[in-house]
Amino acid sequence: MSPAAALATTAAAAPHGFLSPTGVEIAFLLVGLVTFGAALVTVTTRQLVHAALWLVVTLGGLAVEYLLLTAEFIAWMQVLIYVGSVVVLLLFGLMLTKAPIGRSPDADSANRWAALGVAVAAAAALVWVVVDAFRTTWIDLGGAPSGSTKVTGASLFQNWVLPFEALSVLLLAALVGAIVLSRKAKADAAAATTGTPAVPGSRSEKEGVR
Predict the structure, then answer these.
(1) Residues in Cβ contact with 7 at an 8 Å cutoff, skipping those fewer than 6 apart
(2) CA distances from 165 to 170, 175, 180 (A)
(3) Burial class of 53 by CB neighbour count within 10 A (0 to 12, 13 to 18, 19+)
(4) How confident is the model at residue 63 (pLDDT cuts 50, 70, 90)?
(5) pTM score, two decimals?
(6) CB burial class (10 A; 0-12, 13-18, 19+) of residue 133?
(7) Residue 176: alpha-carbon gap to chain centroid
């Protein structure tokens, strides 16, 4: 082997350091920045429909991050469950409650600094818990990939099946609550227009629901 070929082989085998990132690491950083920006727009915009659409970008960016980490199963579950189900559930809730399409002046709160403090504290607590939990954890590179269907399914339906089912019940309860609140608001609006109180099951309430 020539010295040039040996030098090229050594350079290829040398691990990449912090100052020499690979293309995957650069893509991971760029997608992370886009996802972070979309998340900021989601919580700061005053247009509820735009917030839901920017949430699609945020969750899609997380799916791309999972793909870059070679966790294909988790990435597609992110798309199917969160982008394809949760966001659709939010849009149905917005339609059922007849949320305004344009800017909503009342969709803002004066407690921004309190919300920012809570968000920072929650993020710090989450980072600390994750770092403390996985500080001494070693990944078996010879076994099944961490993001494979076998490993994820075994972990989900053996250790996390109860929280998984509880979350589905909570999402169903949220959808039913949105429907109930929208029906009551319509009935109250109809009663205020006609000047008669809305009696449960009455004709005026049914017309207000329609």
Answers:
(1) none
(2) 9, 16, 23
(3) middle
(4) very high
(5) 0.57
(6) exposed
(7) 21
- The topology under which CATH files domain 2-142 is Four Helix Bundle (Hemerythrin (Met), subunit A) (1.20.120)
Length of the chain: 210
- CA end-to-end span of the chain: 83
Give the angle subtended at the CA of 110 by the CAs of 108 and 111, to the nearest 5°.
Answer: 105
Place of tokens 């070929």: 5
3-state secondary structure the chain: CCHHHHHHHHHHHCCCCCCCCCHHHHHHHHHHHHHHHHHHHHHHCCCHHHHHHHHHHHHHHHHHHHHHCCCHHHHHHHHHHHHHHHHHHHHHHHHHCCCCCCCCCCCCCCCHHHHHHHHHHHHHHHHHHHHHHCCCCCCCCCCCCCCCHHHHHHHHHHHCHHHHHHHHHHHHHHHHHHHHHHHHHHHHHHHHHHCCCCCCCCHHHHHHHC
Say if residue 70's pLDDT is above 90: no
Spell out a b/e string for 155-172, using b for 16 or more CB atoms within 10 Å of the CB, else e: eeeeeeeeeeeeeeeeee
